[in-house]
C-alpha cells in the first residue's frame, strides 16, 4: 500500500445482510466519485452459509468468499477487515484482525459490554503503534448537514451550549406480532433500542457539541415481552409462526444527561414510534442561537441566530447541497440531495485517506468505548433509579 501510484487496499468483509449491503455499496462507489490515495479492492466476503454468501458476493460485487472469518482474517490479500456482524462477535473478530496486522472497520455499537470494548481499545492501541487503523462505524457523523452543525457550534455561532435534545425514532417492531430477530436477543445485540439506535444519537450529540456526557438518569421499557419465532421466510416486518419466544432487550430508552461543558440533555430511542421510520432528531440550543436536524429531511439544517432583528428572526432553512459543504462537491449539482447510502461512502473515503496518510480517522475505538460507557451507565441507572456516571 502506497500513495497515488495505483496501490491497492484489499478489503475483507464479515457479514452481508443490511449493514453488509450498505458497506458493500460504499466500497464499490467511493473510488468512482472520490480521488482516493489507495484503490480499495473487494477481495473477500465472509459468511457461514456457503450458498448464501456466494449469492451475496455475486450480488454485492465481492471477488471471493470464505465461510470462516478466521480464514478471511488470515488471507494475505486482505489489508482491512470490515466487521458487519451482530455485536456479540465484534470483539473476537476485530481483535483477531488487529493482531493479524489488519486495519479494522467495525460497526456500532463497538461491543456488547464495556469490558469487551476495553479489550478492543487495548488491541487497537497496540496495533496503532504498528501503523494500523481501527475505526468504529458511527456513519451519521458523515451526513453533510451534521458536519455543518458541528462546524457552526465549533465556530461559536450558537454560543455556549445549554440544551441538547436528541431522539432516534423508528416503528419497525411497533406491531407486537413482528417476529423475533437477533436484534431482540440480548446475547446477540447487547441491548435493544438503547444500543442499536440510541448509540447513534449519543455519538452525534457528543460529536456536534464537542462535549462528553458526564452523568445520566435512565429509564428502559420492554413493551412486548414475547414475539413469534420467525420462520426462515419471515423478514423483520413479516409474520412468525405460532411459537413465541422472549424479548430480552429494551424496546425504548429515555435518559437525562449532564454534559461536560455544563449543558443538560434529553435523549430518547424507541422502535415503537408509529409513523417514524428513521427520525434522528437533534436540536442544540446555545447562548447565541440554535441548530436543529431531522434525518428524515437529511439534506437540510435549521439554524437560528439570536442576533437577528426580532422583526424578521426565525429558523433559517439551509439546504446543505452546495459544493463547499463537506463531501458534496464530489456528487451532484447544488440542490440535488444525497441519501442514506452516501454517508457510508464518505466513511470509506475518510478511512482510506487516513490509512494512506498515516493518520487515525475518527471515530476511533476509543470513541466507541466512550459511547459504550454511556450505554452501560444508562442501563445501570435504569436498574438503580439514580444518577450514574459513565
From TrEMBL:
Pfam family, one: GFO_IDH_MocA_C3
Lineage: Bacteria, Bacillati, Actinomycetota, Actinomycetes, Micrococcales
Protein name per the record: Gfo/Idh/MocA family oxidoreductase
Domain named Gfo/Idh/MocA-like oxidoreductase N-terminal: residues: 10-131
Domain GFO/IDH/MocA-like oxidoreductase: 147-291
Record key words, sorted: NAD, Oxidoreductase
Protein's UniProt keywords contain Flavoprotein: no
Record's signal peptide: none
PANTHER family in the record: BCDNA.GH03377
One MF term in the entry's GO annotations: nucleotide binding
Amino acid at each position: 500500500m502506497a500513495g497515488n501510484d495505483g496501490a491497492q487496499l484489499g478489503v475483507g468483509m464479515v457479514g452481508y445482510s443490511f449493514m453488509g449491503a450498505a458497506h458493500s455499496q460504499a466500497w464499490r462507489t467511493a473510488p468512482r466519485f472520490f480521488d482516493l490515495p489507495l484503490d480499495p479492492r473487494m477481495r473477500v466476503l465472509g459468511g457461514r452459509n456457503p450458498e448464501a454468501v456466494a449469492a451475496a458476493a455475486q450480488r454485492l460485487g465481492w471477488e471471493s468468499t470464505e465461510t470462516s472469518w478466521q480464514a478471511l482474517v488470515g488471507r494475505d490479500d486482505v489489508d482491512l477487515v470490515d466487521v458487519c456482524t451482530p455485536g456479540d462477535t465484534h470483539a473476537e473478530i476485530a481483535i483477531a484482525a488487529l493482531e493479524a496486522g489488519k486495519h479494522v472497520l467495525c460497526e456500532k455499537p463497538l461491543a456488547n459490554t464495556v469490558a469487551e470494548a476495553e479489550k478492543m481499545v487495548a488491541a487497537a492501541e497496540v496495533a496503532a503503534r504498528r501503523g494500523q487503523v481501527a475505526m468504529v462505524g458511527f456513519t451519521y457523523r458523515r451526513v453533510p448537514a451534521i458536519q455543518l452543525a458541528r462546524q457552526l457550534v465549533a465556530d461559536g455561532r450558537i454560543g455556549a451550549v445549554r440544551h441538547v435534545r436528541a431522539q432516534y425514532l423508528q416503528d419497525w417492531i411497533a406491531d407486537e406480532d413482528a417476529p423475533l430477530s437477533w436484534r431482540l436477543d440480548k446475547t446477540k445485540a447487547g441491548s435493544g433500542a438503547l444500543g442499536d439506535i440510541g448509540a447513534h444519537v449519543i455519538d452525534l450529540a457528543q460529536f456536534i457539541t464537542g462535549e462528553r456526557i458526564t452523568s445520566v438518569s435512565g429509564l428502559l421499557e420492554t413493551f412486548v415481552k414475547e414475539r413469534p419465532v420467525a420462520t426462515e421466510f419471515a423478514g423483520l416486518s413479516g409474520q412468525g409462526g405460532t411459537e413465541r419466544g422472549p424479548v430480552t432487550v429494551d424496546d425504548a430508552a429515555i435518559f437525562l444527561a449532564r454534559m461536560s461543558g455544563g449543558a443538560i440533555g434529553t435523549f430518547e430511542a424507541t422502535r415503537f414510534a408509529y409513523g417514524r421510520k428513521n427520525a434522528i432528531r437533534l436540536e442544540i440550543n446555545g447562548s447565541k442561537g440554535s441548530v436543529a436536524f431531522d434525518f428524515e429531511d437529511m439534506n437540510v439544517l435549521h439554524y437560528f441566530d439570536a442576533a437577528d432583528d426580532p422583526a424578521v428572526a426565525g429558523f433559517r432553512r439551509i439546504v446543505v447541497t452546495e459544493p463547499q459543504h463537506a463531501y458534496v462537491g464530489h456528487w451532484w449539482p447544488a440542490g440535488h440531495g444525497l441519501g442514506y447510502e452516501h454517508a457510508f461512502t464518505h466513511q470509506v473515503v475518510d478511512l482510506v485517506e487516513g490509512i494512506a496518510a498515516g493518520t487515525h480517522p475518527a471515530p476511533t475505538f476509543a470513541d466507541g468505548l466512550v459511547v459504550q460507557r454511556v450505554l452501560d451507565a444508562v442501563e445501570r441507572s435504569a436498574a438503580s433509579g439514580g444518577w450514574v456516571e459513565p
